[in-house]
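A quick aside before the break. I want you to see a complete sequence-to-structure record at least once, exactly as it would be stored in a machine-readable document. Don't worry about memorizing anything.
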Amino acid sequence: MTRVAVLYGGISAERDVSLSSGKQVVGALRSAGFDVTPIEVGPDLRAVLAALYPAPDVVFNALHGRFGEDGAIQGVLDWLGLPYTHSGVRASALAMDKAAAKAIFASAGLPVAHGRVVGIADIADSDPLPRPYVVKPLNEGSSVGVSIIREGDNRRAAVVETWRFGPNAMVEEYVPGRELTVGVMGDRPLAVTEIAPSHNFYDYESKYADGGSRHVVPAQVHPDAYAKALDVALAAHKALGCRGATRADFRYDDTQGEPGRLVLLEVNTQPGLTPTSLLPEQAAHLGMSFPQLCAWMVEHAACRV
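That is the input. The structure line, written in tokens, reads:
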């Protein structure tokens, strides 16, 4: 029987999401017949290393955010020679760094939003882009720290005062329209989902609270836009050098008519696996149960040395 250690929790702003993902994964892998050891990760790396002895056959990385999704824990597992799920050090680090990922997407000819990196303090004095625009941390996920500055509001100073994500931020044009996402498993894009948040935009609460958003799969968009979203998601996955499962997020501006403008926002190298997460929903749409999805991830685990 394959022995799988599931890492979950972590020390990032997405700890609660990871706790939920990990608990789901542990149950799914046990139902699929694996010998599972849950390891709740905290700030003590030595405790994590001790919990990984004796060595499992595979590590299922259910961590989200910094230190779990940015190449840090992947480097530790490579050092230990342990096969693990999802992407390796380089792809994880690049995807988590929004500026680096955006440069790679642009060089691959993929559609990205106009934007740049600015010092967060500079936003208090003037608008770095015409309004409306988006301010986001360079190295966070799950929409943590994301704000939209719209015409007529005076929130710039408040955004700066409450900022806790380092000296710089990514600012991008706000793309109107709809939120789309595409899961990728290996070399196969799964489906296009439209996400209709319960309020202004797809923030942390919309992603993880019950009733926070409504998911439509397959998305009811122009066939050309649907096909392009599948192609771009797979191309972005490959451009970063990802492995296993990822999820690409898009804005789709059809406000001036279809087929509209598709804009790639980011690639998540470790998509959420919570009860409200999108990748399991897309897999289910194609006939793959959650235990089967988790088993596929284990079977495609690798050591990236």
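Two observations worth writing down. The chain has three domains: 3-86, 95-112+176-288, 115-173. The two ends are 25 Å apart (CA to CA). We'll return to this after the break.
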